[in-house]
Amino acid sequence: MSFTLAIVGRPNVGKSTLFNRLVGKKLALVDDQPGVTRDLREGEAKLGDLRFTVVDSAGLEDATDDSLQGRMRRLTERAVEMADICLFMIDARVGVTPTDEMFAEILRKKSAHVILAANKGEGAAADAGVIEAYALGLGEPIRLSAEHGEGLNDLYSQIMPLA
Ligand code: GDP
Ligand code: MG
């Protein structure tokens, strides 16, 4: 069965890095500076024996502070509508922010399956953020390092039963 997984979360948490890793090509732009990627990007993902469509919800990085909250809300709602599974990503080194809590509130209300990923999870600097992520009420967070390719087995284990 084919399914669609959308990666959502605030700018700079590592969404495009994970998208690129799953797709295996540089389809989504990655940059230290917010403002590079735009729009929703789709790619064909491969994770173990799973094949699925992955959507990178960019298109927020060029928003001003004034428009960011509303745009994130609309984009997240769109992503939830088109996706069978939402992968909600936070930055484990930063921990849970008020913006993350806003995302979590939207996602808890929607019926799509939600997977919670605490990214940038390599190293001890991420320990506290991973624990904080439990408080979002979205189940057990996957400790992920999109950049280093760590935690992909746990990601697989959470996607597998939903596929
Ligand atoms: P996006 O805005 O959510 O799409 O985030 P990007 O994928 O563009 O990544 C933002 C920054 O975080 C880039 O500098 C990435 O190299 C970095 N990054 C992404 N994943 C990781 C990770 O697992 N660990 C660390 N330390 N940095 C990461
Ligand atoms: Mg991006």
UniProtKB/TrEMBL annotation:
Annotated residues for binding of GTP 1: 9-16, 56-60, 119-122
Stretches assigned to the EngA-type G domain: 3-163
Assembly behavior: Associates with the 50S ribosomal subunit.
Known function: GTPase that plays an essential role in the late steps of ribosome biogenesis.
Similarity comment: Belongs to the TRAFAC class TrmE-Era-EngA-EngB-Septin-like GTPase superfamily. EngA (Der) GTPase family.
Name of the featured protein: GTPase Der
Organism in which the protein naturally occurs: Parasedimentitalea denitrificans
Recorded name of the encoding gene: der
